[in-house]
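Exercise 7. Predict the joint structure of the components listed below.
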Amino acid sequence: MPHIKRYCIALFLLLIIQLGIKAHPHVFIETKITVVYSQNTIDSLSVQFDFDPMFSADLIQNFDANSSKQFEKDEIENIYKDAFSNLKEYNYFIHVVDGSKKLTFLAVSDFKAFINTEGVVQYTFTIDTDIKTNIENKKVKIAAYDHTYYIDVRFEKEYIHFKNKELANFDWKVIEDKSMAYYYEQIYPQCAVISFN
Amino acid sequence: MKAKLLLSLVSVIVTISAYSQNPLFSNSSIDTINTISEEPIVTEKKSHPVKRVAIFNGLIKKNTDIQRAIKERLASLSNNYKTSENKRTIFVIFFLAFIYGIFHSLGPGHGKVFVFSYILTEKPKVLKAIGTSYAIALAHGLSGLVVALIIVFTLNTYTSKAAEINDTSAIISQISYAIIFIIGILLLVKSLRNKHHHHHDKLEKIKFIPFVLSVGLVPCPGTIITVTFLSSMGMLGVGIVSSFFIVLGMGITISLISIISLFSTVLLQRLFTANTKSYKRYYKGFSLAGAALLVFLGAMFFISSL
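Solution:
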């Protein structure tokens, strides 16, 4: 038994060491998602990304060519091309599960980029979803994360918002969703679960 | 001793991760902003029969919270320094860079798993283990600083070069995996020779410098972003010195891993030598399997990175 105890202690120490492998991100995003609802349908998600101040400063220096402290139309096009469009490969960091179905987004629309008064770069865009909600006990899950964990994506403090919510009868809550575990399945993302009555 | 190598390599399988690249950037990007809406593709979500337990979920998020807070504070202090030029602010920046190094190196790509394997294989003294840890931290941090300075002196920004950095980092990762593969081959040969020649093996020690370089070769993105940011604030000198404080912090974390590795090595050695029959039974098998595993992992990651 003493040997097994030592073995367990040794394995525990090895396990502790693996702690060091996990926390990765180099860029931080706070996201605000608005669920846009119409009759019996979640039409789209209106998404806003707020970047951390360090990365924002770099984006501004790179893309605000005329140093106007605002992104002009051509500058926004450059941002879209060089610092956004690749997110298609990452589902734009937005993960939606409609019942048992997973949604893969092919494109977004209405992309814009801003610099707010605190010097933070914000992206806004719209994702079409077309999710029917007139099904009994329908559940829709919405999470935001980068599965590579190069970027840490979090909900902002109120998690998600709703537009036209008076048209729907639903409850919602935020959980840490184990079924969406990512990054070597070591991180549970925050997930808004909307239950339609 | 070879059993320890196998156990360390098991941890390599479980925890090794390829160097990640910023998802925002790619050299093959779309030209124009999309104005046409597109329906999403709907697929059945795969269910996982094995129950998963992310035991480090809370700690990972806590660590990320700390890094996020440090970066925000660093940005805020830099802005303050631009207006006030208070010298004390610089020392706070250095201190935060040091703390950032400690917590940031709890992430992958900082050589901890390989340090662990190296220590379990070579079983150095404590001071040498700490020295190895700091050598890796220095290589990692310096390579990040070099990349940052290249960006700064070509009058570019991190984001303007991010796609190229992604591509370069991918190449560096491939080189790292190739070196790891070679080190695995050396270990394998060493294990085979040790079967018959216990005392006169020329491959007594893994070469220190190639090992340190292979582990620390990939530039640290955290260092790159910090230095380029401070440079953009007109504080390049502060950025360069901060990178060394980040290295100091990283060295502490990696050294801690080294010391824990040494401690667990002692425990395991006592376990196996306590029962000589078990030790003899598993010794030969573990030594070969452990080395073969490193060869396999190096090859696998190299091929998958192509």
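Discussion. The beta strands of chain B are 41-44.
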